[in-house]
Design brief:
This protein has 323 residues and is mainly alpha-helical. It is built from eleven helices and five strands.
Length: 323
């Protein structure tokens, strides 16, 4: 009876683990049973593997690009690549202030600036460009009606870019080639900043003076003359130019290009240089025998004076004052 009851009891089958067969050798008949921890596992498809590889490659490229931009000290490769990226992203702004040939010249200037002074130097030039372009566009219709507006709706060409940056480019080259060693590197940086403070002050004073100047005076005789006359100044334009120089010097100090005393030097040097430029314009420009003295040439003289004055003031005034 007990035996029959035992035979009639239901027998529950125990689960059988899944096994995979792995061949230890291509020609071996021995097989090893290995439990499969996940019976529902599916191997990665070629499409998923390809997507993963592409994502990893893109991440690597982005990482390499960031490292290249952040190269310290800057290299020619990092300067060219950084400028290319910024110029592509900023092209809508660039075309409002520069012609196509002007953009090409500006790219060379930007590359040289980045190589010499890094991202902070480039930011300084970009600030100069934005402020200068904005001042040029002020009351453009009125300026055009009066015949005193810049050509091409204020879009500057390569001549204007070169004329506005010659002194800065010279300082950049002196810095790149280490002329004078570490002791002089700071001077070249100061001269670079002063040149753009001078040019921005000149541009803003001229454009705001043409737009809002109630009375313009010839700087050599103080006689009232029409707006746009070479060598003419106005109270409104002069004050605006001074503020622009102070603003750019402050930005330069903020990003570490110069210190506070050097910022003051840049402002003073820019105003002296602009006064000298106005005198040259009133006394010589467009006069017989000086036809070669066009706006671009005067710009070179102007910014060179501002740069040289700043360097001399730093060496002979600031240094003696500190002693």
């Amino acid at each position: 009876m007990a035996l029959s009851s035992l035979l009639l009891m239901p027998i529950k089958p125990s689960p059988i683990p899944s096994f995979q067969f792995q061949h230890s050798s291509l020609f071996s008949s021995r097989k090893t049973l290995t439990p499969n921890p996940n019976p529902n596992h599916r191997p990665a498809t070629p499409l998923k593997m390809s997507t993963t590889v592409r994502a990893l490659n893109l991440q690597t490229l982005l990482s390499d690009a960031v490292n290249l931009i952040q190269s310290s000290p800057p290299t020619w490769h990092s300067a060219i690549f950084s400028n290319f990226v910024i110029f592509v992203l900023g092209s809508p702004i660039l075309v409002t202030g520069l012609s196509l040939s002007g953009i090409a010249a500006a790219f060379l200037l930007g590359t040289l600036t980045w190589r010499a002074f890094g991202s902070s130097g480039f930011l300084l030039v970009a600030t100069y460009f934005v402020l200068g372009t904005a001042a040029t566009k002020v009351k453009m219709a009125q300026k055009e009606a009066q015949g005193v507006a810049e050509k091409r709706k204020g879009r500057r060409g390569p001549g204007s870019v070169v004329g506005s940056s010659t002194a800065g480019c010279i300082c950049a080259f002196l810095s790149i080639f280490g002329v004078g060693g570490v002791a002089y590197s700071r001077l070249w940086q100061l001269g670079f900043v002063a040149s753009f403070c001078t040019k921005l002050s000149d541009t803003v004073s001229s454009e705001i003076g043409k737009a809002y100047g109630k009375t313009t005076y010839l700087v050599t005789t103080f006689k009232a003359v029409p707006r746009g006359t070479e060598g003419a100044v106005s109270v409104e334009g002069t004050f605006a130019g001074l503020l622009a120089s102070i603003l750019l010097a402050f930005v330069s100090c903020l990003i570490g290009e110069i210190n506070a005393p050097e910022a003051v030097i840049c402002v003073i040097a820019s105003q002296i240089a602009n006064l000298g430029e106005s005198i040259i314009g009133a006394a010589l420009q467009e006069k017989e025998g000086f036809r070669w003295l066009n706006n671009d040439t005067v710009n070179v003289i102007n910014i060179s004076m501002g740069s040289i004055l700043a360097v001399l003031m730093q060496q002979f005034v600031l240094q003696n004052w500190r002693m």
